[in-house]
Amino acid sequence: MNPHRLPRTVVPSRYDIRLEPDLTTFTFTGVETVAVTITEPVSEIWLNAVDLTITTVSVENDRGDTQRGSAIAEPASERYRLAFSTPVAPGPWRLRLEWTGTLNDKLRGFYRSRYKSSNGEWRWLVATQIEATDARRCFPCWDEPAFKSVFSSTLVVDPSLQAVSNTRIVSENVENGRKVVRFADTMKMSTYLVAFVVGELESTEAAMVGRTPVRLWCVPGKLRLTPFGLAAATASLGFFEDYYGIPYPGDKLDLLAIPDFAAGAMENFGAITYRETALLVDQREATHAELERVADVVAHENGHMWFGDRVTISWWNGIWLNEAFATFMEMLAVNAWKPEWKRWTTFGVSRAAAFAVDALWSTRPIEFPVRAPRDADAMFDVLTYEKGASVLRMLEQYLGADVFRAGVRDYLRAHLHDNADTGDLWAALGRASGQPIAMVMDGFIFHPGFPLVTARLDGRDLVVTQQRFTYLPAPPEGEPAPTAPAQRWQIPLQIRVHSGTTSTTHRILLSDDEARLRLPDRADAVLVNEGGHGFYRVRYAPDLLEGSLRRLPDGLDAIERFTLVNDTWASVLAGLVPLTDYLDLTARFREERDRNVWSILLASFNALHRIVEPSDRPRLETLVRERLARIVSTLGWAPRPGEDDLTRQLRGDVLRALGTIGNDREAQARTAELYAAATRDPGAVDPNVLPALIAILAHAGDRRRYDEFLERFRTAKSPQEEQRYLYALAAFQPADLIDQTLGRTVNGEIRTQDAPFVVRTLLMSVSARERAWQFVKANWDTMDRLYPKHGLRRLCEGVTGLVTPELEQDVRRFFAERKIDLGGKTLAQYLEQLRVAVAFREREGRALASYLSRVS
Ligand code: BES
Ligand code: ZN
What is the overall mean pLDDT for the chain? Predict the structure, then answer.
C-alpha cells in the first residue's frame, strides 16, 4: 500500500469547519464535523493532518450512536490514525474533531503574513496556501483531489478584522467579543481549493459580471493599485463564460493580494489569492511587461474556476492538464482582451523556456506517475506549464479553434463537479473532431523530449526528417540510455512555401522517419513551422536557411523570425551549428523591431557573457553595442506619439541591454541625467524606460547609489517599484555591495517570497556569481529553514550560471555531499544545464575569442 494514499473505506462528503485564528499568539483552534460514508466495519479511520494536534475525536450517527476515538499522529506520511475500541459500523456517520495549530511563517497551510501600516508599524494578516497537499496543515481531511466535498466554513475573528473564504457570507454575529462569520456552502470541490484569509483588509466595490460580484482585496492603503487588476478580472471572467459556454459556478469572486505569498497566485475557488506584484499595479507608472504579468496571472486563475476547480484531476499526475490548460486559456483570454499585445507571439518566449529544459536527457514526460506529495510539488515547472500549454496550442491549431473549443465544452459538461483525466479530454476532443487525438498527443505528453525536424532539398523535393533534439550527444551519468528503436513523434507540420510573390501552406503529419513534399519550380523560400505553433525545432540546410533570411525583415512573421533565431541558437548549444554562424546571423537582425526576437537575441548575448574570458569581455561588449546601435538610434530614449505598447517595452529592453551587457558609457551618462530628471518630475521619463534606467545605474553604480536604491526599495509606492529596486540591489558590481545584498537575503530584510529569486539572480550574475555561490554554501541550512520549498528550488536554478569547470565540480560535490533532493528531476536538470553550458564554453570558447578579435 502506498502510505501517501488514503483508503477508500471512509469517504467524506461534507465538512462543517470552524476556525479561530489568534493573530497575537499565532495559533489557531479548529472544530469540524465531517459527514462520511463508511463502507465496511473499521476500527481505525485514516485521514491527513500534519503539524496539527488533534485533541478530540468522536463519531456519531443519526440513530444517536456515538463513540469516542483516539488520535495517533503518523507525521512521516502526514496522516493521523483515529482509533476506535470497537469497529465503527458501515453507514453514514458524522466525525467530530477538535485540534490546534500554529499560524506558521512558511507560506503554506495556514500562515501569517506581515505588512507595514501607514504609520510604519508592522501588522499581521493570516491566509491559507493549500495546493498541492497542505489542507492537512489547516484542518484534518481527506487531502486528495478525488475526495470532493461540500465545505461549510465559519471563521471566528477579532471584530476589527475582515474574514474571506470561498463563498459569500451568510451571517455575521458578535459572540463573547468575537466576530463569528459564517459562509455559504461551497459547491462540491477538492480540499486543495479551500481558502481562508483574515486581516485588516480593504476591498473595492463589486464589479458585476452577469450575476457575479467581483472584488479585489488588499492591505490598507493600496486600493489605488486595484483598477487594472479588476478590469483584467472582469474581462477574463466574461471571456471564459463565453468560451466555456457555462456561467461562472460560484456566488462571488474575490481576488486577494497577500504580502507574503510563495507562488504567483492560487485558484482557490471564489477566493483567489495573489502575491502583490501579480494583482496590484499602478497603471500609469507600470511597464508593459508588468501590466501583462497582472493580466496573465488574473486570466490564468480565472480560467481555473471551471477547468480545475469545477472539473478536477483525479490525482497529481494530471496536474499538467490543470496548469497547461489554464496557461493556454490565459493566452486566449489576454489575447482577446488586448489584441495589440500579440500574446500568442510573445508566448514564443515561454515555449523557448520549455524547449530549454526538454532538450535535456534529464527532462521528464509531461505526465508522469506521482506517488508522494513531494513529487507533485516538483511538477509545477516549465514542462507542466509551458510545454503543456505549447502542445495544447499546437493541437488547437491542428484541429481548428472552433472544433477544439467544442471539445473542451463537451469535456466540461461531461464531468461537471467530478474528476477527470487526460484521457477524458482526448475523448471529448476526439468526439468533436472525429480524429484520434491520443495518437498525436501521446508522443508529446507521455514521452520525454521533442523532435528536431531537419529540412533539406533533394532536387525539387523538400525532405523533412525527425530525430530527438538533445543538447548533449549522450546522456550524462545517472540518466538512462536512449531507447531503441529511436523515439518517433507524430508531428503536425505546417509548411509554407513561397514562390515569388505567392505562398502556399501545406499541412502534413510527419509520423515516419522522413516525409517528402514536391515543391513548385519557382519555390524560393520554405518555412517548416509556419506560425511557430509546433512543439519542435527546425534545422534548415544552408540553402534553405538563406532563402528564409532573404525575406528579412518583413517577409517573415515576428514569431517566425523568433523561431529562426531561437532554433539556430539552440543548435549552437547542441553543437550542430558553429557559434560563428550564429554570430553572423545576429548581424542580419540589426533592423529587427520585434520585442521577442530581441529578447532571444539578448538572452544569447547574456549567455555569451557568462562564458567569455574576462579579458575578452570588452570586445563582447563592443559586439553587443554594434548589434544594438541601429535599433537604439531608431527608437531613441523617448516614445513617439501613437507608438504601441510593445514598441515602448522594446525601447526599455534595448536601452537596458545597451547600458548593461553593452556597457555603453554614453548611455550610462545619459541614464544618470534622465534618472535625475525623473526624480524631479515623474512624468519626465516613459514608464517602460524607467526600470531600464534603474538597472543601468545599478550595473555601473557605487555605494552612494546603492544606499539610495536601498531606501527606494524600502519606501516603494507599488509592488512593481519595490521589485525594480530590489533586483537593482542584486545588480551592483562592487564586492562589498554584493555582500550586503546577500546578507539581506537571510536577515529578514527581503521577504522570503523574494529572497530566493534574488539569490538566483546573483548566482547568474557574472560579477556576483562566485561570491553568491560561496554564500549559498555557507548559508544553506539557514535558507533551507527560512524559504518556502518552492523558492529553494528556484534558487538552485541559479547554479546554471556557474559556468566554469571548477565551479561545476564544486556544485556537483556540494549537492552530492549534502544529499540535497529538490523533488522530481529538478536537480538533475539544473546540473545538466550547467554541463551543457560548460561544454559549450569548452567547445566554442576559442572560436568566440577569435571572432571577437576580428570584429573589434
Ligand atoms: N495552481 C497554481 C498555484 C500553485 C503553484 C500552487 C505551485 C501550488 C504549487 C496557480 O494556478 C498558478 O499556476 N500560478 C502561477 C501563475 C500562473 C500565471 C502561471 C504561479 O504561481 O506561478
Ligand atoms: Zn495554474
Answer: 96
Q: How far apart are CA 491 and CA 384, in angstroms?
A: 20
Instruction: State residue 856's pLDDT score.
Output: 67
- What length does the chain have? 856
DSSP per-residue letters across 74-140:
EGGGTEEEEEEEEEEPSEEEEEEEEEEEE-BSSSSEEEEEEEE-TTS-EEEEEEEE-TTT-GGGTS-
Q: With beta carbons less than 8 A apart as the criterion, state whether 508 and 517 touch.
A: yes
**Is 363 within 8 Å of 383 (Cβ atoms)?**
yes
Whole-model pTM: value is 0.98
Residue bearing cell 507571439: 345
Q: Is 331 helix (H, G, I), strand (E, B) or coil?
A: helix
Q: Distance between CA atoms of 307 and 389, rounded to whole angstroms?
A: 14
The residue contributing the CA closest to ligand 1 atom 2 is 266
CA–CA distance, 211 with 526 (Å, rounded to integer):
51
Collapsing DSSP states into helix, strand and coil, what is residue 539? strand
Ligand 1, atom 10, residue with closest C-alpha: 266
- Which atom belonging to ligand 1 lies closest to the Cα atom of 299? 18
Q: How many angstroms does the Cα of residue 264 sit away from the middle of ligand 1?
A: 6
**What pLDDT, on the 0 to 100 scale, is given for residue 682?**
87
pLDDT tens sequence across 126-161: 999 999 999 999 999 999 999 999 999 999 999 999
CB 852 within 8 A of CB 619: yes
pLDDT tens digits for 528-537?
A: 999 999 999 9
What is the enclosing helix (H) or strand (E) of 465? strand 461-468
- What's the gap in Å between 405 CA and the centre of ligand 1? 23
Treating both helix axes as pointing N-terminal to C-terminal, what angle do 665-680 and 645-659 enclose, rounded to 10 degrees? 120
Nearest-angstrom CA–CA distance, 508 and 487: 19
Residues of the chain under the 50 pLDDT cut? none
The tens digit of pLDDT for each residue in 467-487 reads: 999 999 999 988 988 887 889
Please give the Cα distance from 166 to 255 (Å, whole number). 11
What is the pairing mode between strands 202-203 and 196-199? unpaired
Please, what's the b/e burial string for 611-649 (b: 16 or more CB within 10 A of its CB; e: otherwise)?
Answer: bbeeebbebbbbbbbebbeebbeebebebeeeeebbbbb
Q: Cell triple for residue 789?
A: 520549498
* Torsion, CA 649, CA 654, CA 658, CA 659, rounded to 10: 10
Give me 487's grid cell: 523515439
Predicted pLDDT at 564:
96
| Secondary structure of 145-161 in HEC code, one letter for each residue | CCCCEEEEEEEEECCCC
Distance, CA of 602 to chain centre = 21
* CA distance readout (Å), 331 to 130, 310, 573: 25, 20, 29
